[in-house]
Design goal:
single chain; 151 residues; alpha+beta; elongated; Phylloplanin-like; signal
Amino acid sequence: MALKPLMILVFVAVMALMSVAEAQNTVGIVHVNGTLYCTADGSPAPHGTATPVFSNATLQVVCSNDVVFNSPSNATSNGNGVYLVVLLPRPNPSIASIVSNCRLFVLTPLSTCNPSLPSAALVSNLKFVRSVQVGFAWITYMVATSFTLQA
């Protein structure tokens, strides 16, 4: 009879430890978002010059080393050039592992939005912005560091 309360106590302790371990994982779902511009580096023009956006561009986040479940993950920029790619990290990821193992590609050639631009795609590393708790879940926001031409 004394064994049953002991087993219940052990079970509760294990569940509590698992909850603490899970609560310490503050990565959660990762949102890679931003605005893509129709320029050679995907950035707005300097000094407030009006810059057209790159709408309907296909973007893709590709991660190595198996850090997310859904790699590659695709999105399309909307009419305002805004994009959002959602990543679902594997258990116990670190922000550093996602940043160092994932890259954002613009698969649509630049010449699609402006014929005077090269028929090349863009690629960028990711940068951590912040993590926000929403109820019991976490959302981690990341952005492109800077796009470069990809042959």
